[in-house]
Each structure stands twice: as structure tokens, then as C-alpha cells.
């Protein structure tokens, strides 16, 4: 079984982003960039399936600029076998990414696409669903546990107020939620080894992909500032304030 893991380069989750002065988006210049955390979980899950003998090969793919190859190297340092960069300078929306990923799926013919449930930069939570629809494959989104057996994959999904277990026939798309696993750290020797693993670059323009944006960002603004809170000494004071100031009881 071959597993394809789409990974995205995003602003590191520890960085506090600032809105650009012209409200056109957020400033990303000079910020630390990393592998999207949910994609790290997806890579880890694919590696575990390979280590269990369920999968033979784990291929990572990213759509983006040349610099995005750093997240491919990170994924290979974790253990992925090889990587594909679909190079483009275009701003990408989930529909465009799903189109590009479908082209890679058609080339690579994986049995499973294991990806993040969402990219933490624009929080779209749409690419996996769109890709499954374009491929006509079943999808198991928000996976917190998976089990592959007899050409099927059982997925435990995180849903509102509980979990749902579904069984999908392969090939399928699954998207990883936070509780699926705890990703490993790449060791220094593996970081060195990853430098020699194959990384293929394909020009998006040569693949004949439709990456044209359909969304226009009207404006990006900071959330309203919250008023500073106060500390009360006891419950009686709280009840008093709820009665007299907030007037909610
Ligand atoms: P999103 O729908 O943008 O929240 O992203 C969901 C998932 O799609 C991510 O966790 C990645 O696995 C994948 N993805 C999104 N953008 C890209 C990209 N540019 N290249 C590769 N995979 C991507």
C-alpha cells in the first residue's frame, strides 16, 4: 500500500501574526514557518502504518513556492520515503490545492491519502473534502483513530459531542485530528539522511492545472480588543457584580 501525505508550509503556531497595514491579509515576511501541525500528525500516522507493515511507501507532497521544500525535508526527516514539490508562486485556495493534489493522485495512484484536517494559517478545513469529491473516493474526516484491514479502513471521527466510527473502502481520503497521535521528533542523523532522499519538483504550469483563485479577500482586521478583567475576592462579590453591574441575575 502506498500512502500520499499532502503537507503545507504555514506560519509557525508559536508566532503571533499581525494584520498588514492595508488590511489585505497578515504579515508573513520574516516569520518562522513550519510544517502545518495537523500535517505532522498525518505524516506520523502514515509512518506508523508503514512500520506496522500495512504500507510500503510514504510519499509527501506540497503545492507552493520553492521554499516550501523545507517542509518536505522535515517530513522526510521524520521518515517519509520521498517527496514531490508542485511549484507555483500563485496564491492558493483549497479548490486549487485539491486540483493539484488530484493530478498527483492520478500520477502516483496511492491507496490512501492521509492529510491534515486543516491548515492553521487560513483555517479552511476544506481541501481534504474537496479532494475526496474530485476523486470520487470515500472520506473519513477528523480522524482520531484508524485501523486498516482487508482493503478497508475503519476511522473513528471526532464529532460534536462524541465520536463516530465509520468503515471506508480503499482508496480513501482521511484527514487527521489532534488526538490521532503524537508526532515524533526528527533525530539529527535522520535530518542528515533526509537531505539525500529524492525530492521531485514539478512546475504547476506544466501540469496544466487550474489554480485560478475564486475568492477575493475583502478585508482582514484584528479581533476587537478585550477589556481587561478584574479579580474578585469571593463568590459573594461575584454575585453582587452579576446583579448590579452585569445585571444578568
Ligand atoms: P485547508 O483546507 O487549507 O485547511 O487544509 C487542509 C489540509 O490540506 C492541510 O492540512 C494539508 O494536508 C492540505 N493542504 C492544504 N494546502 C496545501 C498545500 N499548499 N500543499 C499541500 N497540501 C496542502
UniProtKB/TrEMBL annotation:
PROSITE patterns: ETF_BETA, SIGMA54_INTERACT_4. Heterodimer of an alpha and a beta subunit. Gene3D superfamilies: HUPs. Residues 65-227 form the Sigma-54 factor interaction domain. One of its GO terms (molecular function) is ATP binding. It comes from the Bacteria. The electron transfer flavoprotein serves as a specific electron acceptor for other dehydrogenases. It transfers the electrons to the main respiratory chain via ETF-ubiquinone oxidoreductase (ETF dehydrogenase). SMART domains: ETF (SM00893). The keyword Membrane does not apply. Belongs to the ETF beta-subunit/FixA family. PANTHER family: ELECTRON TRANSFER FLAVOPROTEIN BETA-SUBUNIT, ELECTRON TRANSFER FLAVOPROTEIN SUBUNIT BETA. It comes from Swingsia samuiensis. Its cofactor is AMP. GO terms for biological process: carboxylic acid catabolic process; regulation of DNA-templated transcription. Keywords: Electron transport, Transport. This is Electron transfer flavoprotein subunit beta.
